[in-house]
Amino acid sequence: MKNYRIVLLKGDGIGPEIVKEAVKVLDQAAKVYGFSISYEEALLGGIAITQTGKPLPEETVTACKASDAVLLGAVGGYQWDQLPGSLRPEAGLLGIRAALGLYANLRPARIFAPLRSASPLRENIIGDAMDILIVRELTGGIYFGQRGRVEKNGASAAYDTELYTVPEIERIVRTAFRVAQKRRKMLCSVDKANVLESSRLWRETVIRVAKEFPDVELSHMYVDNAAMQLVRNPGQFDVIVTSNLFGDILSDEASMLSGSIGMLPSASLSDSTLGLYEPIHGSAPDLAGQGIANPLATILSAAMLLKYSLGQERASREVERAVDQALLKARTADIWEEGCERVSTAQMGNLVAGLIDGKTA
Ligand code: IPM
Ligand code: MG
Questions:
Q1: How far apart are CA 309 and CA 169, in angstroms?
Q2: Helix 345-354 to helix 15-33 angle, to the nearest 10 degrees?
Q3: Most buried residue, 16, 31, 63, 89, by most Cβ within 10 Å?
């Protein structure tokens, strides 16, 4: 029987609770589809700072590199907010992205039919088909460029640098074209080419790479317009490809359109099949330990893990189907509505796992 090795980075806040439920679901999928998974835990974020003094201990990088995939809960919490930038939990997240070469961040934002009324957009605007995939560059740009403090005109000043090389742009753009080919074959590249030189290089490169993908319809949009179009007519988008910073901002906006940030997963992919999967929501320290957090974004991240790192596409579809079905029966507090059963984090995990029987996918 094929065995896969998964590293669990439970992290902080609600991280451990939601990862536990995703593991239940992965184990059930393994049982039904005939493979096995062994897990190893490693430290990242606040808990790593508390236990080792560093947000990303070397052993964590080693364990992740030796694994087939990494499942992450969430990092961060008030107790670490006062630390200097390089020692904050977030530095651990940026560090693991860089160390594993996870340059392609896939963030789907779609409407779950039973949750349609949760969208802050009017029903005639949100439609019933919103299904966007944001492909965000994750290991370059202003997040990793030179930064510093200087003096200018006698005043304290600071700077950060947006820098992209052509190979960095080419690889993320190719990833985006390939995923678009498997979807509705529309790709919108978002930049600020009317102002930024780095965006002009980005756009030139996108246009050149597009020749390799004649079956995909390509468009370009300035980031300010894209932010507006997302709330004006989200149904016009299929796949969006953009830089690290623009992708960070637009993916939060897109996630809100679905009305339920507790539902959305993400995948961070490298050139190999090794990937890191995490919910897009944060560690929600206020909710931790109460058993009320929504585990579905982490469960859907596990579905992405099954697909992209383990190649278990049927198991992945089955998990997604089980989540859709679970939503019709019960809800955690964040998405609860009159007429639905209100369940805890663990009950939701049990419900989804119980719906995985392999009969449909
Ligand atoms: C995200 C988060 C991170 C980012 C933070 C926590 C460093 O906002 O994954 O979108 O900015 O990339
Ligand atoms: Mg973000």
A1: 23
A2: 10
A3: 89
Residue-wise pLDDT tens digits, 94-149: 999 999 999 999 999 998 888 888 889 988 888 877 999 999 999 999 999 999 99
Q: Please give the model's pTM, rounded to 2 decimal places.
A: 0.95
Q: Which of 2, 11, 94 is nearest to 301 (CA)?
A: 11
Q: Judge residue 75's burial from the number of C-beta atoms within 10 Å of its C-beta, 0-12 exposed, 13-18 middle, 19 or more buried.
A: buried
Q: Which atom of ligand 1 is nearest to the CA of 75?
A: 6
Residue 155: what residue type? A
As for ligand 1, residues whose beta carbon falls within 6 Å of it are 90, 93-94, 248
Q: Tell me, which fold does domain 120-257 have in CATH?
A: Isopropylmalate Dehydrogenase (3.40.718)
| Of the options 3.40.718.10, 3.30.70.270, 3.90.1170.40, 3.10.129.10, the CATH number for the domain spanning 1-106+260-361 | 3.40.718.10
Ligand 2 centroid–CA 282 distance in Å is: 9
